[in-house]
Structure formats: C-alpha cells, structure tokens
Amino acid sequence: MMNGDDEKMIQQLFFLNDTIVLSLYHDANMFDDYPQNKTYNQSKETEFGILRFVEKIYQTLPSFDGVQEINGFLNVGHQKNPYTSLSCEFSEYFYPKIEVSSILLNESIKFKTVSDFVYEWSGFRLTESPYSIGNTLVFRATGVDLEPRLNRKNNKAVDITFIKLEILPVKIFLKFKLAQIIVRTRYIDLADRDKTLTIDSEKIWDSLDIEVFSADKLIYADYNIYFVHSINLDIGVLGPEVKTSLTTDERSVSLQHISHESSQAGANINNDIVSYLYKEKLYADSLASSKRQFIFLGKGETSYAFDAFTEIVKQSMDELWIFDPYFISLNAPGGKNRVSDIIKILAQNLSVKKKIIFECNADNNTRNEDFKKFFANINPIIDEVKKKTGGSLGFEFIGTTKHFHDRFIFVKQKGNIDGYLVGTSLNSFGENYSTIVQLEAQGAAMVFNKLTSEVSDASNTVSMGKF
Hints:
The chain is an alpha+beta fold. It has helices spanning 99-106, 108-122, 272-288, 302-313, 335-346, 364-389, 441-454; strands at 9-16, 19-27, 40-46, 49-58, 68-74, 88-94, 136-141, 144-150, 157-165, 170-178, 181-190, 197-200, 207-214, 217-226, 230-245, 252-266, 294-297, 319-323, 353-359, 395-400, 407-413, 416-422, 434-438, 461-466.
C-alpha cells in the first residue's frame, strides 16, 4: 500500500455536479515551484450538469485499506501517464462503479466532454483509460527528465542531455531499432549529470528505446522515440490555370497542370534495406487498415457526388483509370451538361493521364457516330484548355466491345493502386440512391489487373482518341 503520511501530495478532484468522477494525486516534492497554500477551482456548465475541478496540496493520502489496487511503473507516453516527459511510479485504486460511470461510458458525447475537461486541467487522458472513471490514481514522478536529439554531424548517433537527474550514479540502456528490429544496443554507466552523452549506434536506425536504472530499479523509460533523419518533399509545381464554371452545379473548378517534383531535406540514409522495410510496412498497414472510404448519396445529391469525385482526383497520382460502360452516354438524367461537368471535375489536374474505358458497339459506323456526339459536347472545354495552356485535358477514351457492368475508379501512383467501386455511372451518380466504396489494397490490384487484361485488352478495344 502507498500510504506515506509524511509526504505532501497534490490532490486533483473532478466532479460532475456533486459526484466525484476522478481523483488524482501527485508527489508534490517533484514540483519545486508549486505554491504551497493555493487552491485552484475551475468549473464548466454543460447540458448534462456542471463539471468542477479542485486542486490543492494534500498532506496525507486517504486510506485505501480493503480497496483493490494495481501498482507499477509508467513509461513516458503510457496512456495512464499524465506527464509529458516524466516516468512515474503508479497506483490505481478500484472502487465499485458509481451510477455516473455507466452513464458516461454509454454516452459518447458526455464522455468526450468530461474527458476533455479532465485532460485540460490534469493532462490525464481519460479517453485512453475510460475505466478509470470513479477511481483514485496516485503518481510519483521519478525525478528523471532527459532530451534525446539526433547528432547533427552523425545521423547514426544520438545526443542525450539530462534536464533533471536527482539520482546518481545511473545506468542507461539504449536499443536502436529499424522498423522495430533491434539493430544495436548500448549500455552506459553515468556518474556526471552535467554531461551530454553522445552514443553512436554505428548502424542505420529510425527509432530508439531508452531505459535508465538506479541500481536495479527502473526510474525512466521511453520507447519508440522516432527521429526525422530526412524528409522527402513532394512539391506540386502549378502551370497555367483555366477557370471554368459547372452548368449543373453552382461552383467553378480550376484546370491546370500540376507536376510533382521530389526534394529531400536532411541527410540521405536511403539504402536497399531501409527501402525494403519501409515498403513492407506500408503494404502491411494497407492490408491491416479497415479505414476505407464509404459514401452513400440520397436522391438528388449530385453536388455531393462532385465533392466525392473531386476528393479522389485531387490525390497525388500518375494515372486515373475509369471503367464505366455508359460514360459517354448523353441520355443520363443530367444530360449533356452533366457529362460536360464530369469531364471538368475529372480534368482538374491536366498532368495526370486519364484512361476512360466505356462499352461501345462492335459496328464501326455506330461506334464512331456515338462518340462523335459525345466529342461535340466536350469539345468547347478541350478548345479552351488548348488555347490557354497549349496542352490537352489528358484523356484517352477507349471503347471496348466486352460487356461489363460495375463501375470502377482506379488511382495509380508509383506502382500502388487505390480502387473505388461506384454504384452507378459517373454521369448520373447522385441522381438516385448510390454509393462509392473504397476497395482494400489487394482487392483493388486484383480487380484492376482483371479488368485491364480482359475488358480493356487490345483485342477487345479501340482508342477513340486522346484529348
């Protein structure tokens, strides 16, 4: 039990109306400049009651006899650690859940409001420790504060400066990691607090674990400290702009060439191993991610459809592929104007290669006649862009005799493929109930490869021109 009667503690109490929501205690001896005889009071009115915060010096901890508890050590960054840069010894005492606990845990808006209030005045993240509601937590910072920095002259080395170190001697244990693989460990005995340590890993690394021990007792720990060795900048260079208004929506769009140039700031540490591990992590993250875009539009929500398509085409990309059997049809609910507006939305980055695969008639005369009507409809915007920029919209229209049904949008960027399943043709999307669903990474690549090998294969297609 942690009942030291002779120690001064900073008591922080949080109330909802007259019910204690959370009780926090901090070792006052670790905060030299804390005023001894001052009480802080803060309150906030909400729709469900008054939140109140009271802080003061408390001479003794209350008795915790018979109360369930957990004791341990919290590293910097632990979800229960309220300190930004300090580690601490920790105890949490569990009380039977009060009625307000179940109310807050089951009502997200109320819980977030209370959590924000607690974090504002204590630094404790209740959102990451929701079952602490109604409990008492005791923190004793260990008196070690340090600052690790990447060495300016050697990107394989780290400098460690102790801002606060009340115990000597200490032992420091470091783990240098690359993509969470430990590539080097270092062990240092330190007896001089005024010294800045420079520790060379002699290996390429991207993150660091630091542990500090006094005798055999852990007094500081910070894990997965990431450093920016270099930054790859993707700079968009803008060309001449063509401002054009949509006919079926009250907005205008800018059509312009946006070329991307890469630049690097900082030391270059790229090698085959770093590239391999980085690409592996990106791909693994894409496989594990469940955060895929899903958009559902009601009847007559074409403006939101334009928003959705704009969000997709504004991504950084090399190529945009659209499979839509009825893309060139002028008989959609929006008619010719809607088709023209879709072209403008998709053409906002003139530098991107855009391939539109649509279903066409096997008869040459019929196919040419259908496309001639479509081309006449979009020709004004083609001419305007050519006149003002000297270039094209970046489209290639490819007719296929292979029948297909579902509509897809694919974004290609440096070998990666993002895919979207669209519930209806783009020229009528948003007119009726319809959806856009982002495909998971493997699924997008599989669908794209199948469509390009079977639907847009050269034996089934004819290029109707590039514009």
